[in-house]
Design goal:
Radius of gyration: 21 Å
Structural class: alpha+beta
Distance between the termini: 46 Å
Number of helices: 8
Bound molecules: guanosine-5'-diphosphate, magnesium ion
Length: 387
């Protein structure tokens, strides 16, 4: 029988962000190694994090790896993403659901373009708390590291992040077992414990979980995975699949997290929900599981839309009526059209009717991203749903 998940510490969702090659994946592996020595994690080697081999074998690219670990006071799910585009997509759609993040900056290279973009992105999607891992400190000139810290402090303050702890670490040396640098990773984790607060979870709200992945487990049926956005779910309860014209309810026959069974999955948990009598092709990424009747799918909505400036990575030219970008909502993306009376320029905020190519679960307050040709060109919030 599977082990049960013991909920004896608050659970938080964090992750590494930062410029490519600054050492995010190495640090993620190092954290699991350092904590594994204390029986607080399963060591997850670099190759396993960077390639998500299980998903790759199944032909599913989710481009997001979760590792799990505990400190003295918290239980963490930690995400590491392979490339910059994955950060943009997963963060802006809320698929990553970060309560806080470790910003990894190489002390040897300093602030780079993706460092800036990820800080901006974190601010835009409401990641309130950051801790800096000034990585590769093993080979860095300490005076150069001082300058990098100064520049970083300015960048963070510009985006409203004040008093961000900065810890000089070496993910690589810690991974190799070097005692000095192992201690640096322990210091980093203490700062994460102290500086990133436990968020308010809407556990009493009706259950809602965006579908991230759907798998068949031989002999057990169909499993739907995702981060529970609000509410809770237990074995025996009925859930509805909403979005993409689904018409399906099912009884939950199991709830798990990281391979351990749970009495009840709660808002903030990364859960695997087993559904009775459902075939794998009946549920898809981009739909949501919800309390029956609590969510509805729509194609038309009124939204407040902000068009990113060119400096923020947005467009160089205005958009006008008939503009058809891609809309990223929770775990899905669908094409859609923005109904504009007059052209809107980068940097502008407009209210407009949006018509999506497919019906997805929508409600006022839901935020989304607008992308075009691999670039994030806007962010939006649903003001009201039409039909
Ligand atoms: P990511 O793209 O941010 O995930 O970076 P990786 O973890 O893949 O690391 C990129 C390169 O930097 C690899 O060759 C690592 O071995 C190296 N690296 C990572 N951390 C450190 C460190 O603390 N010190 C040194 N010297 N090299 C590191
Ligand atoms: Mg990486």
């Amino acid at each position: 029988a599977k082990q049960a998940y013991v909920r004896n510490k608050p659970h938080l969702n964090i992750g590494t962000m930062g410029h490519v090659d600054h050492g995010k994946t190495t640090l993620t592996a190092a954290i699991t190694r350092v904590l594994a020595e204390r029986g607080r994690a399963t060591y997850t080697p670099f190759e396993k994090i960077d390639r998500t081999p299980e998903e790759a074998r199944r032909g599913i690219t989710i481009n997001i790896s979760h590792v799990e670990y505990e400190t003295d006071t918290r239980h963490y799910a930690h995400v590491d993403m392979p490339g910059h585009a994955d950060y943009v997509k997963n963060m802006i759609t809320g698929a990553a659901q970060l309560d806080g993040a470790i910003l990894v900056v190489s002390a040897q290279d300093g602030v780079m373009p993706q460092t800036r973009e990820h800080v901006l992105l974190a601010r835009r999607v409401g990641v309130e708390h950051l801790v800096v891992a000034l990585n590769k400190a093993d080979g860095a000139d300490p005076e150069l590291a001082d300058l990098v810290e100064l520049e970083l402090g300015e960048l963070l303050a510009e985006h409203g992040y004040h008093d961000v702890p900065m810890v000089r670490v070496s993910g690589l040396r810690a991974l190799e077992g070097d005692p000095e640098w192992t201690a640096s990773v322990e210091t980093l984790l203490r700062q994460v414990d102290d500086h990133i607060p436990v968020p308010v979870r809407y556990v009493d709200a009706p259950f809602l979980m965006p579908v991230e992945n759907v798998l068949t487990v031989t002999g057990r049926g169909t499993v739907v995975t995702g981060a529970i956005e609000r509410g809770s779910v237990k074995v025996g309860e009925t859930v509805e699949v909403v979005g993409f014209d689904a018409d399906l309810t099912a009884v939950v026959t199991g709830v798990e997290t990281f391979g351990r069974t749970m009495d009840r999955g709660e808002a903030g948990d990364n859960a695997a929900v087993l559904l009775r009598g459902v075939r794998r092709e009946q549920v898809r990424r981009g739909q949501v599981l919800a309390v029956p009747g609590s969510q509805s799918a729509h194609r038309r909505l009124v939204a407040r839309i902000y068009l990113l400036t060119t400096a923020e990575g947005g467009r160089h030219s205005p958009v006008s009526g008939g503009y058809r970008p891609q809309f990223y909502l929770r775990t899905t993306d669908v094409p859609g059209q923005i109904d504009l009376d007059a052209p809107a320029a980068p940097g502008q905020t407009v209210e407009a009717v949006v018509e999506l190519g497919r019906a997805v679960a929508l409600e006022p307050g839901l935020s989304f991203a607008i992308r075009e040709g691999g670039l994030t060109v806007g962010t939006g919030t649903v003001l009201s749903v039409l039909d």
